[in-house]
Each structure stands twice: as structure tokens, then as C-alpha cells.
Amino acid sequence: MKPKYKWNLKQKNEQLIDDLSKKYRFSTIIATILSNRNIVMEDEIVRFLNADKDKFYNPYLLKDMDKAVERILKAIENKENITIYGDYDVDGITSTSILYMFLEENGVKVNYYIPNRLKEGYGLNNEAIERIHIDNTQLLITVDTGITAISEVDYANTLGLDIVITDHHECQESIPNAIAVIDPKRKDCNYPFDMLAGVGVAFKLIHALSEKLDNVESIWKYMDIVAVGTVADIVPLIDENRIITKLAFETMQNSWNIGLKSLIKVAGTNREGKITAGIIGFRIAPRLNAAGRLGDAKRGVELFVTKDKDKAAHIAERLNEENITRQELEQSIYDEAVHIIERTIDVDSTKVIVVSSNNWHHGVIGIVSSRITEKYYRPSILLSVEDGIATGSARSVEGFNIFEALCSVKDLFLKFGGHEMAAGMSLKDELIDELRNGVNKYAQDNMKSDTLTPKLTADMEININEIDIPLIEEIIKLEPYGVGNPEPKFICKGKVNDVRKIGKENNHLKMVVDYNKNNIDGIGFGMAEYYDSVNISTEIALLGTLNINEWNGTKKPQIMLKDINPNNDFTNDIEKYYQIFKNMINTNFSKESTLFLRNENLIPTRQDFETLYRALLSQEKHNVDHITITRLMKIINFKQSNKVCTLLICLQIFNELKLLSYTYDKMNLSFKLNKGMKVRLEESSTYMKLEINN
Hints:
There is one protein chain. The protein has 694 residues and is of the alpha/beta class. The chain is 43% helix and 19% strand. The protein has a five-stranded parallel beta sheet with strand order 3-2-4-5-6, with helices on both faces. It has a five-stranded mixed beta sheet with strand order 7-8-9-11-10. It has a five-stranded mixed barrel with strand order 14-15-16-18-17. Helix 15 links the parallel strand 7 (353-357) and strand 8 (380-386). Helix 9 (223-232) crosses helix 12 (277-293), helix 11 (258-267) packs across helix 14 (309-344) and helix 13 packs antiparallel against helix 14. The longest helix is centred in the middle third of the chain and has 36 residues, at 309-344. The model has no long low-confidence stretch (mean pLDDT 91). One of its GO terms (biological process) is DNA repair.
């Protein structure tokens, strides 16, 4: 079995690594990892390793921040009504929540509005603006949305409703005519870091306001909620995003916010009780997202802003239940999408998969699009059609900007927006074919030749004897991991000492690999399919991350496998010995053949016959009538590749005695036992031939 991924190894700058090691007293491994992430200047290293609140940039470096603060302070002074307009995803929910809490704590008459995903769709809309205006709002602040709402802001201006926009999405050619437009991606914005999530931009507004209100120390408690939105929006965990998450993960398990605390309780953490980007991305964020995906995202905001413990616990439980419903709905759509793709699309010749249906809940198609992209390793667009309008979500692969692809066909859309890896859009359903053709033409012209090859990049190759607890503890200091700061991956090589399937359903893989008498355990979740390809005493290359397994008070290093590359010599040798066996059959086990078998210790013993027959009997009891030859050799403990000759001789003799029938083709054995027969091995001519020549 071949590796699933193309393995890349980061190019090392030996001189730079040596300089970093000497200057900062880093190990070569840590120096290599920092070099690979281009963290090499002294201020960058200090900022990366010592992330604290003093390292945040001045919020007033953001274009229009001064205008936004001036208008909000005027609203506070004049006791105007302020409404926060947020998006319905986790980034929008957390952005709305922190700004609402901050303004409320500062005596502001504040409300919030989250559009209904199913009825209103993404972004500002005129109907919502009119309702907000009628409700006597004088100032509307957007969070995580608004950068493309040019006509909607113009409409608000005709009503006399002032708007301050905070967003982080890509800007189009023009920006809205609002009181202030804060977006680090504005071309005329010189802010040092343009990869904040929407909640990060909202926090910068809070930071700027707090400086004028002289209560800066009150804002740091929001960091854990800011971290949830930051991780959920899959922005790079570098620079200010790293500071946000690093500070938050230290305290989030015991969060001051009763809503977040309740959500963590129902979502669960890892065995150590640690909060990580993975815990947020795979446990906390999906539960928050479930509310918005199935309709009403306001419950997510209610969870964070409530001061009632019972209400928080109730909302968290509801979100947990809705997440289960969402998972079931998602699986149904995924199965249908795969069916359509397999039936109608030549995936190999398609660069961007575009699929649509009238039956899909467009609240979850973004997640399904992610799964389709993961399965086929191609950018994908999934569209749900209702009343002639197709609403869709797009996901991409590394190296292909899906937002730019959509910009190439922007005239097709009623509305669209997003960034390099994800986007959303709506269009008339009769234009779906034009969309499909247009984005595939863009991909044909702009996609690099290797973009659609799944890759894993390792930081370096290390020896197993270099891996120990102190090293891993040093690597842990580089957390939190995420986009932009991936968990360090390593390649190591050795000889397989043991391999087995583990887990309740035997779908995971565990192996012990040795190098110069140093062992390490390798754990591969969902990698049991490799079992038949991994053979005892053969060389193997592992690619994975390092962690510490703590059990009964004992700490032990282990490698968490991402991919493996078994040495094919064992398989090649088996094929070689199969050809030798065939020649023996053709020559009716000549004296030369039997001499070879005797010298190689390959003539089967009675114990070999018994062991093999019992193994086949056991397989048949489990309704197995075909098996790879390598797996069967493991079962009967034949560790050397030449022992395939012994196994095949046993099968040949069983076949002569009519104990079974079998076929062997390309490493696969199919068999059928004829049970209930009593025979003697001596009745086989092959057996006697081998006995005679002994």
C-alpha cells in the first residue's frame, strides 16, 4: 500500500538554524521548526514565544478606527440606541456577544440583530435595516459583515441611520459609504496584521473604545470568547491571533463566562482537560454553529450574554441537541452529494466540483462542501436551490483562491463574498452551468499542476533515539497550533517490532518501531487499512506529530501517525517466492527444488499444517473467504517473506486432499473449506514427494 499523501520535507537553512541554536540556546529541532515558520528575527521570536497582551498593536492603526470611536462615543454621550448587526456563524456570534457585553457594561442602550440564515441569508439586507430603523436605532455597528454592503448602506443613509462597519473579509473595488469602515484588508489600511477574524476586529474596536473610556483592564476577560471565534473562522494562528488564543487557552477551561463554561461542559475536552484549537474547532464551534445553520443564531449570543446559570445550561443543552440534528442532516446531504458526483462527474478531469440539489438544507451545505473537498481533494461548491435561487457555499484546497475564482464570474451572482479558502454566494438557478464552466475555466488557467495532489509537509527527519519527553515538552511551548502554525510534523524511520489493530471497532493502528534498539509507539487513528501492508521486521517510514502518552503515572513519547510508507521489499519478495513456488509445481518438485526448500527451512511441519487450517477455519467462521497473503502470514506468525513458499505448499497439499479449493492472485487468497472430511497428509502426492526427498 502506498502513502496517501505526497511527502514534502521543508528545505533547511543549516547556517540560520545553527545561528538560532547558538544565539538563543535552542535545540536544533526547535531552531529548525522556528526557521521553517520564518520566525527568525529577535522581535518575531520574542513575540512568538512570549505572547502576552502587551504585544497587541495599537488599535488606532486600523483605518477609520478614530472615526468609529468618535461616533460611538457621541452615541454614548447622547444616550442614542445602538444595534449590533452580526453574522450567523461562530465568528459573527462571538463578535456580536463581546461588543454587546462591553457596550452594555458601559451603560449603553444596545441591542443586537442576527439575520436568519434560512429566510434572510448572509449580510445586511434592506428589510432588516428598515426594521432596525423603525425600532429607533440611531447607530448600527456591523461585526463580521458589511464590507460588500454598498447598496444596503446607501439605503440606510437615506433613512438617516448611521452605520459603522467592522469586517475582515476581502474588499471589492468599492467600499460602503459608511461613517467608518474598519477592515484590515482595506488596501488603504496600514495595520501590521491583516488576518484577524471578524471577532478580532470587533475586539480591536473594544480596545480602542476602552482607551478613551479609561477601562482597558476590563476588556481582557473577553479573550476566551474572542479565541472561540478566531479558531472557528480558521484564520492563521500567528501574530495577534496567536496572542488571543494562547492567552485564552490558559484560562478558558474555567471561563468567567457562564455560557461558555456551560458549552464546554456539554462539548467535553480532551483527557487532560486542556482547551486546544482542535477542541474548539471540532467540539465547541460546531455546537454554536448548529443554531445558525438550522435557523436562529441568536441563541448563541444569548448563551454568552446571559447572567443566568440555569438559562446558560439550558441553551447549551439545546445547542448540543441541535448539533446532533445537524450531524444527521449533514450526513444525508453528504451521501446524496457523493452519489450525484459519482454518477455525473468525471472527477479526474474536473478541477472544481459544482453540485446542486433542490432538497438540501443550505444551513449545512458549507460543512458538506468541506467534506466533499476533503474526500476528492478538489475545490467544491454546493448549491441549494429554492424558488429559482441557488444559495451556495464553497471550500478550497491549499494553493487555490476560491474567492478570486468567484470574482472571475462575479456578474453571475446576486450576492457573494468570502476569502481564499471559503466563500458563499447566491445566483439564479439557470446560471449554475455557467458558474460550473466559469470556475473550471479559471482553475484551468490559474491552478498549478500539483495543486490537486494531497500533500503532507514535514519539518524535518529525526532519529527515533532523539525523541524523548524533554524534547516534546519543548515542542509543546510552540502551541497553540492551527492554520499558519501547524503542529510540527516529523519523518522517522525504523524497523517494525509489532503492529496490531486497536479500538472498539479495530479501525485504528498501533505499531512499535525500533531504531538502534530505541523503540517508539506509533498510533494511527482510522488507519487500520494499513495493517496488511505493515510487516514485522521490515523497514518503515512514519510521518506524524509527537506527543506524550501518560498512563498510570508513566509518561512515554509516541508518534501520532498522519501517514506511513511501508517498505515494499517484503511484498516484492513474496511475489518473487511465489514465482519460485510456481516453478516447483511445474517441475513436480524436482530434487533441486526440494533441496532449496530444505536449505531455506521451508518444508512445512505438521504444526504448520495445523496452524494454517485452524486460521482458515477461524476466518470462515467470521464469514471471511478471501484474505491478503500478508495478513494470513501475520495470523500464522510467518515473519519472513520466504515462508510464503511454506504456506503455498500447505495450500497445495490441502487442495490435493480436497480439504479446500483456493485461488491466489496478486497477493490475494480466496478459499473455500470442505469441512467434515477425514484425511491423512500422506495421501497427498506432493506431501509424499517432499517426505521422500527429505
